[in-house]
Amino acid sequence: MVHLIRESWAGIEARSDEVARFFYAMLFSIAPGTRELFSANMETVRDRLMRALVHIIQMIDRPDDLVPFLHQLGRDHRKFGVVAQHYEAVGTALLAAIKKHSGDAWTQEVERAWAEAYTVMATAMITAANEDDGPAWYDGEVIGHTRLTRDLAVIRVETDHPVPYQPGQYVSVEVPQRPRLWRYLTPANQPGEDGVLEFHVRSVDGGWVSRALVGHTQRGDRWRIGSPMGHLHVDRENERDVLMIAGGTGLAPMRAIVEDLAQYGRNPQVRLYYGGRTRDDLYDLPNLQRVAMTNPWFHVVPVLEDDPTATIAEQGSLPEVVAQHDWSGHEVLISGSPAMVRATVSKLLVTGVPLDQIHYDPFALD
To answer: Any idea what the CATH number is for the domain that residue 214 is in?
Structure first.
């Protein structure tokens, strides 16, 4: 089954945009009520579908990783109003989309493999959603919005009830400026009893939500926050030291993890490579340096890609700079843009870091 699915997907992956468009057209045709679950901007939704599907295909032979991911996905989808009956229509539309673009490569064996795989996926998601007795989302209010630069803001949200996330996890948010268009954000602070989450947001080209968050968020805005997802963390019982690689606002999960570790007297050695294009991109560097001064297990290495006059940092792209060293004995955590994550993983694999020691989350942040 694994071989058939991966081989058939490889044949159509270059046309994944067309697959996604056909999938949603088919879904809305056979289950018209599902259209109301999505925003007007379907481009972001289609992109996320494909990233989730690729991530599932990558893990399909690793059930210990796949099943927890599917459970999180099932719990998270409750915020859309997804119920068990929707999964049959989704499965029908998905197989129809893959079949249409597979041509002669679509055989009865391939169809059975995809049908069996989807049954496993849907069952895991439905089971997790049904067993979760928590809210479908958490309500919160913006209590602070600080514009650090033209395209970067720090937003603080106080939730009505604490969100049960672990440092390093991410959540989806829905904001009043962009209803029904959920965006993934990672809290940059460890969980606290006050229920306050701090988000670092950079507006990106074409980012409907990120631009609204940076430019138009106001104190008093009411947000919805979905179930926590992701597995980035530091295992304090693991004998390996830790390498963190963060680009731009990809710093958020690393910052939350380091803040959490700082409450303990003994930790593995943690080295954080924190990269950006210019010095302005390293917006939290002074805070990280203060943390390093009082915690001997923590070291921060600034990296600048396009600022050769800076003497405070190593020069070059994050993947290139990190690959100059041997990290094969480390647990590696990566967070940043999809392009940076892909390039960094490739570089690390070439230098000999085992894949099972490299950890990152599958979703881009916009």
So the answer is: 2.40.30.10
Backbone angles phi, psi at 17, to 5 degrees: -60, -40
Give me the pLDDT at residue 43, please: 67
Report the distance separating Cα 253 and Cα 365, nearest Å: 12
For the entire predicted model, the pTM comes to 0.82
Choose from 1-5, 17-21, 143-147, 176-180 the range with maximum mean pLDDT: 143-147
Round to whole Å and give the CA distance between 31 and 293: 58
Q: CB-hemisphere CA count at 13 Å for 163? A: 31
**Residue 24 to residue 30: CA distance in whole angstroms:** 10
3-state SS record for the chain: CHHHHHHHHHHHHHHHHHHHHHHHHHHHHHCHHHHHHCCCCHHHHHHHHHHHHHHHHHHCCCHHHHHHHHHHHHHHHHHHCCCHHHHHHHHHHHHHHHHHHHHHHCCHHHHHHHHHHHHHHHHHHHHHHHHCCCCCCEEEEEEEEEEEECCEEEEEEEECCCCCCCCCCEEEEECCCCCCCCEEECECCCCCCCCEEEEEEECCCCCHHHHHHHHHCCCCCEEEECCCECCCCCCCCCCCEEEEEEEHHHHHHHHHHHHHHCCCCCCCCEEEEEEECCHHHCCCHHHHHHHHHHCCCEEEEEEECCCCCCCCCEECCHHHHHCCCCCCCEEEEEECCHHHHHHHHHHHHHCCCCHHHEECCCCCCC
Among 131, 149, 184, where does a domain finish? 131
| Inter-residue contact 270 to 236 (CB < 8 Å) | no
Residue closest to 339 by CA, chosen among 311, 364, 314: 364
d(CA 319, CA 316): 8
**Beta sheet of 152-159, edge-to-edge order:** 183-185, 171-174, 222-225, 138-149, 152-159, 196-202
Same domain, 276 and 324: yes
Q: What is the pLDDT of residue 286?
A: 95
Tell me the residue range of the domain where 34 lies.
2-131
